Every structure is written in C-alpha cells, then in structure tokens.
C-alpha cells in the first residue's frame, strides 16, 4: 500500500461513488436523492452589506456554516434577523433540526439566546486556549 497526498478534485469521483453505494445499501430508493440545497441571505443597510448567513440543507437537517455581521452593524439586530430568515426558510423546506458550530470567542451566547442547545464541546479546538461548541435546535410550526 502507498499513501499519497492528493488533490481533493481528483479524489471526489471515487468518494462520491463510495458514499452513493452506501446510500443505496442503507436507504430506500426515495432517500437516494440527497435533497441538498444551499440557503443564503444577506442583510443590507443603506446599500452596505451588513451581515450574511449561509447554510446547507440535507434531508431533514440544515447546517448553518457561516454567520457574520460587520462590526459597525452589531447590536442592531442584524444577526437575529438573518437567523429568523434562514429558520423560516428551513421550516418551508420541512427541516426538523438546525445545527451549527461556534467557538468560545465567537457567538455562543447569541445562539443560546436564540434557542440553540450545546450538545458537544471540544476544548483546545481549533487551537489551544479556545473551545469549539456544537449546537442544535429542533424547529417546528
């Protein structure tokens, strides 16, 4: 066996094939379509992009990967409005659970205030002296 450092693009067709086969073995035909969709919203104030949020829906789950608000617009409710927009879209998409991660120096309190619960944490990740938190929120109409 030889292990070689490789480019992601060269490996993806192989990995896609492996995971597709796993899905075919594990799930019925109606579950084979991964039903992936990117959800993204921006908040503009006076034609200036004040904040943005991006998430990926897969099956019954949405994972929020990015949420950022420009410093000049913090404490104006921009982040809350972005969370509300993506959660409303998630409900329309029949999402049941939203997940996200944050670090100790980011916005843990913000997410807790919005009903997210910590289900895991790793100390000294991604660097010594900080903690990475894993959060989830069950949503329903």
Question: Which features would summarize this protein structure in a list?
Answer:
3 helices; six-stranded mixed beta sheet; alpha+beta; globular; 141 residues; 6 strands; 28% helix
SS element count, helices: 3
Query: What is the overall shape?
Result: globular
The percent range for strand residues is 35-45%
Structural class: alpha+beta
Q: Terminal Cα separation, in Å? A: 53 Å
Give the helix level as a range of percent: 25-40%
Summarize model confidence as the mean pLDDT: 92
Largest sheet: 6 strands, mixed
Number of strands: 6
Rg, Cα atoms, Å: 18 Å
Q: How would you write the strand order of the largest sheet? A: 1-2-3-4-6-5
Low-confidence stretches: none
**What sequence of helices (H) and strands (E) makes up the elements?**
HEEEHEHEE
What do you see in this structure?
InterPro entries: Acyl_CoA_acyltransferase (IPR016181), GNAT_dom (IPR000182). Keywords: Acyltransferase, Transferase. Its EC number is 2.3.1.-. Pfam families: Acetyltransf_10. This protein is of the alpha+beta class and 141 residues long. The chain is 28% helix and 36% strand. The protein has a 6-stranded mixed sheet. It is globular and about 55 Å long.
